[in-house]
Amino acid sequence: xxxxxxxxxxxxxxCRTSGNHKDELEQSILAIMLAAAFMEAFINQQAIHILREKxxxxxxxxxxxxxxxxxxxRGYPKLEDKWSETxxxxxxxxxxxxxxxxxxxxxxxxxxxxxxxxxxxxxAPMPSPWPDVxxxxxxxKANFNASAARYAITSMQGMLREFSTLTSxxxxxxxx
Length: 176
What we know:
- This protein is mainly alpha-helical and about 180 residues long.
- The chain has one domain (about 1-175).
- About 65% of the residues lie in helices and about 0% in strands.
- It is built from 7 helices and 2 strands; from the N terminus they run αααααββαα.
- The chain has helices at about 1-20, 20-50, 55-60, 80-90, 100-115, 140-145, 145-165, and strands at about 125, 135.
- Strands 1-2 form a two-stranded antiparallel sheet.
- Strand 1 (about 125) and strand 2 form a beta hairpin.
- The chain starts with a helix and ends in a 9-residue tail after the last helix.
């Protein structure tokens, strides 16, 4: 998923420079979705490998990441919470949620949620993000472009570096 996210972000940029905005939209959505999916798979893999059965209990929703029993199922944790709590449990250190890379990661998750949890189009079109398209475009086209795809990749890589720093865990060679 990591390498596919990189590929689709590169393809989105190629489409942008060639003026192919339909394919730019498609490639951008794929890059965003794959970056977010990779982030979830990665933190789950790390938590399962390092925390073992404690993470399984947490993922079931009746225990928090510190091992405290909850009176009722907590519901599936937000991806941001899973990253934050898992990292803290592994290392005792926290992400600064108000700064990069965590702030960018929250925006990546927000973009992913706009795609997955589509609620219909707002009534007002947005200014075109493309210099060769005058006027306004639909909100989807304005939000899901090569710039957003590039941002998704930057956010993903920033979180991986910060996770590595906070946990003192070396990232696999293929991520570097």
